[in-house]
Design brief:
Number of helices: 5
Radius of gyration: 18 Å
Distance between the termini: 14 Å
Strand order of the largest sheet: 1-2-3-9-6-11-5-4
Mean pLDDT: 85
Helix content: 10-25%
Structural class: alpha+beta
Low-confidence stretches: 5-21, 67-77
Number of domains: 1
CATH class: Mainly Beta
Bound molecules: fe (ii) ion
CATH architecture: Sandwich
């Protein structure tokens, strides 16, 4: 993995002052604060922002999940965005416009996703980005786990945000068993990203982070059946693929 070792500017040049740096977590009020994730020992950086204007209205059209059969493709039928692609900071606007249903073209959600791709690529120092924009109606990854990735960006545009755990609340020896109670003895320690927040989660494959990947899970499904809308970015280290 070569992206995280690319030459990086000093943290101070990005305006991060760290007043809310809490152990392995950096909470910030600006995009620039997310650069704190590059610090050794920081495994989660969160830009606690409001959902950009207009996105909630766009997402309202998603509606509840229809009662479809097992072979149905409800996302496509309902015009729900469900996109997986490899893109670049320069190409992401056109790539998203081509991949999404026509009703989303030029809207605030695409504009924000383009901004986040460019921000993410700048933070990681990678030339290409793997992008997923998923409508998630079920429980997703309901068991606490650490991802085997380098650095992942998550932003929930609609619905509840990702749950995460402070390091000192986790029994890492219990990860992978499918037993949340064994991982976490005190459910009051669960922390939650807000809708619209931008989270950078350092995974097991980030250099020097083995055994320290940020532990997290998907939130429970909305009982109304309304899908979450989740943007997930990873670095793509082989742009020739
Ligand atoms: Fe995950």
């Amino acid at each position: 993995m070569h992206c995280p070792t690319a030459p990086l500017a000093p943290l101070s040049s990005h305006g991060f002052t760290g007043p809310e740096d809490r152990g392995h977590v950096a909470l910030c009020g600006t995009a620039a604060g997310l650069f704190a994730i590059r610090r050794p020992g920081v495994t989660l950086a969160v830009w606690r922002r409001r959902l950009p204007a207009g996105i909630a209205g766009e997402c309202a059209r998603l509606g509840p999940v229809p009662d479809a059969g097992p072979d149905a493709a409800p996302e496509a039928a309902a015009g729900r965005p469900s996109v997986r692609l490899v893109t670049t900071p320069d190409g992401v606007a056109a790539d998203l416009a081509a991949a999404l249903p026509s009703g989303w073209a030029g809207g605030p959600l695409i504009r924000d996703a383009v901004r986040l791709v460019r921000l993410y690529a700048d933070i990681v120092g990678c030339p290409a980005v793997q992008l997923r924009l998923d409508s998630v109606a079920g429980n997703g990854c309901r068991f606490f786990h650490a991802d085997h990735v380098g650095l992942r960006l998550l932003c929930t545009y609609r619905g509840a945000g990702t749950h995460w755990l402070p390091d000192d609340a986790v029994a890492r020896s219990a990860l992978g068993r499918g037993d949340n109670d064994a991982v976490l003895s005190d459910p009051r320690r669960i922390r939650k990203l807000g809708t619209g927040h931008v989270g950078l989660l350092k995974g097991e494959d980030w250099p020097g982070n083995r055994g320290r990947g940020l532990v997290h899970r998907s939130p429970p499904a909305d009982p109304s059946g309304a899908p979450r809308l989740l943007l997930c970015l990873d670095h793509h280290d082989h742009p020739e693929d």
